[in-house]
């Protein structure tokens, strides 16, 4: 790719990152991390990868701020994260997507697989974000994902039917970007499935390990996206 294109795009991403800081959506290290990830994903997967990342960011920022004061009384994680999103949260949610972008960039023969990793990991991150943020707010009955027993709204590993529906919507939104710009073949269903599997794993890890202090929320988010990416790779092998 021509340097005359690469550098202006790099500067554009950092300019947009500065606007997120000014808007109070990210702190400076988080914004810089997001810009680097976006640039890497763009270099490897082009406009499709960047649009999926942008959609995840818009969904995440919007749902996180939506009726936040009401959610703070229930969710432990929301109470802990009143400040702007940190760099660790950006890498936890987008790091695997960045690896997918790097894979597509440095190993062009695996470009399609790299893009699918980007899509699956972002679908899982978006699914988890919408599940937790909107499920906490609009859910009616809450239960422990590990035991199936009724549990406290907003606690680690607690889900609701409404939250699961929002999670499905989050995965579908990311898959739609891939579908419109690439293909509505098996990949579309695979992205949705991988996103939901990552989200489910996130809930189970939250109930089993995060509650006991064995994993932080960031590590749960990393594993969420890793499981989605691995699921997508296995599906790619199965359908190749």
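-> sequence recovered:
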């Amino acid at each position: 790719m021509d340097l005359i294109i690469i550098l202006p795009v790099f500067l554009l991403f950092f300019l947009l990152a500065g606007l997120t800081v000014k808007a109070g959506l990210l702190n400076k290290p988080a914004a810089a991390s997001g810009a680097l990830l976006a640039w890497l994903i763009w270099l490897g997967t082009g406009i499709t990868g960047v649009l999926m990342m942008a959609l995840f960011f818009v969904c995440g920022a919007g749902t996180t701020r939506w009726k936040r004061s009401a959610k703070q009384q229930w969710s432990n994680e929301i109470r802990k994260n009143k400040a702007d999103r940190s760099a660790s949260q950006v890498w936890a949610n987008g790091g695997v997507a960045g690896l997918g972008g790097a894979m597509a960039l440095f190993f062009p023969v695996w470009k399609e697989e790299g893009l699918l990793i980007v899509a699956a990991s972002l679908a899982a991150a978006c699914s988890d974000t919408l599940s937790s943020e909107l499920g906490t707010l609009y859910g009616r009955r809450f239960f422990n994902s590990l035991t199936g027993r009724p549990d406290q709204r907003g606690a680690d590993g607690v889900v609701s039917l409404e939250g699961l529906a929002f999670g499905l919507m989050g995965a579908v939104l990311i898959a739609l970007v891939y579908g419109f710009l690439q293909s509505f073949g098996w990949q579309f269903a695979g992205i949705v499935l991988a996103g939901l599997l990552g989200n489910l794993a996130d809930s189970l890890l939250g109930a089993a390990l995060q509650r006991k202090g064995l994993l932080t929320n960031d590590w749960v988010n990393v594993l969420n996206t890793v499981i989605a990416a691995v699921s997508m790779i296995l599906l790619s092998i199965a359908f190749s």
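Residues 3-239 form one domain.
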